[in-house]
Amino acid sequence: MPTPVRVCRACHSDLPSDYCDQDSRIIALVGAKASGKSTYVSVLVNELNQRVGQAFHASLAAMGQSTQQRDKEMAEDLYERLRLPDATRPAALGFNDPLLYRLSLPRRGRPGSGTRHTTLVFFDAAGEDLAGAEAMDRYTRYLSAADGIVLLVDPLQLGSVRDRLPVHDGPPLPVVETPPQQIAADLAAQLRAHGKGGSRGRVSTPIAVAVTKTDMLRSLLDPHSPVLRNAPHTDGRFDEDDRLAVHEEIRSLMADWDSGALMRQLELDFAELSLFGLSALGAPPPAEAPADAPKSGPQPVRVEDPLLWLLARRGLLPVRSAAKGRAGKGRVK
Ligand SMILES: Nc1nc2c(ncn2[C@@H]2O[C@H](COP(=O)(O)OP(=O)(O)OP(=O)(O)O)[C@@H](O)[C@H]2O)c(=O)[nH]1
Ligand SMILES: [Mg+2]
Description:
Blueprint: E1 23-31, H1 37-49, H2 51-56, E2 59-62, H3 64-80, E3 99-106, E4 115-124, H4 133-136, H5 140-145, E5 148-153, H6 159-164, H7 180-196, E6 207-211, E7 238-239, H8 240-258, H9 261-269, E8 273-277, H10 305-313, E9 319-320, H11 324-327
Helix pairs in contact: 1-3, 7-9
The structure holds guanosine-5'-triphosphate (GTP) and magnesium ion (MG).
Magnesium ion (MG) binds near residues 37, 85, 87, 88 and 124.
Pfam families: DO-GTPase2 (PF19993)
Protein name: Putative LigA
InterPro entries: DO-GTPase2, P-loop_NTPase
């Protein structure tokens, strides 16, 4: 029946009035429990509003009352009270609504050439809802509708990384959760079952695989590693060569960590993938207050890269590459 506000026909949730007028990109966030998904979203939104927004002449606005309210709470918790997000509640306790944002970018990457609006939908599930094929089933409709997936991999979950970290004064290492390889395999199986299997059985949805908490890996990285500093974003362009440098660096790190098992699995399952490394906080939480952000607030490194890659692949961002012929159009295996 007619309603005074626009609602979804399936679930009857409110749809912000401009939701249907824009191109939309659903970004699914996947990762084991405590891999850093909620912290990442909160920091990413803040960076898109500030440093990254400035570099790309972009602006981001929370859409609809529910996102506006949660956006405000997330920012107050992390940036004013310096509190890290609580564990996300599992779907069994009530479904978590996705976060909707309108991202406005100049056409052709230049201000004054008109604006293109894109709706970004972030879905931040609880880790335990992604911890097995059965649990993930609840999310399948949303995962199969996603235009891009960001898989967060917590390096502190990997045995060989835990063994190599120097004795540190940060908070204790997290308990071991679902291995990223299993999440990736279950995810691919779900997507294939929903018609996302392309040539040679590989899933066609692009996947950005990001190693999180890179602030903890300093002792394992070269001090000049590209992973330890932000991407340049020169002239408001996505730097393809920089992305490849990070991709190769993370690939060789992972080869060292697990003999490349995760990478081999990903290459068998996904047709388009790129590896990233990021730190949402820039430093470990204080040892005496592990539920708090570092005292100086989040100082993120490379949080925007996975999303920018997904947007650039869709032609929504101008790309810069000194080796265009060699790198192709942003496709990497
Ligand atoms: N060192 C470091 N630790 C981080 C970073 N981001 C998150 N963490 C740690 O990881 C914990 C979990 O982060 P969350 O963002 O809640 O993880 P999640 O994936 O949303 O977890 P669930 O909602 O339970 O699935 C935080 O409480 C921090 O202790 C980071 O950038 N660096
Ligand atoms: Mg969470």
